[in-house]
Here is the input.
Amino acid sequence: MGILSISIIFVLFATSAFSYSVGNRTDNATFSNVEEVTTFHFHLTLSLDFNSQVANGSNLLSMISLIDNLSTVILDVRALDIEKVTDGEENELVWNILDLNPNIGEALSISLKSPKKKNDNFSIQVFYRTTSEGLSLNWLEPS
Here is the structure.
């Protein structure tokens, strides 16, 4: 068959207790704007094509703004083919890939439709597929 579809739900509690301080940033091992927004839940849906060695799917992020006037969310990505990014109402959002750092990957910058106030909850869904340049997904040949 060669294709396996899976749906995984994870709960992610991201707080400042899990970060460290370097310079004026909380965490210099990420492009993400962790001082401004946090993810408290994500729903990962993937379809794995073993013949093509590609994972195709989406990640629905439930987030909370830590500041007033949050207008951009920045996520860490590496070697992904982004199809689209939507908000909780399935409206497409403007996004672009920024800096490449060989140690941490690239920055996916997402512009929100409207600025969020401190403590506002909102959702973003990223639709993507992996590429052969990705480092975190390895395919083994059957033995």
Summary: DSSP finds no helices and eight strands in the chain. The beta strands are 3-10, 37-49, 54-65, 70-77, 80-87, 94-101, 105-116, 121-130. Confidence is low (pLDDT under 50) at residues 4-24.
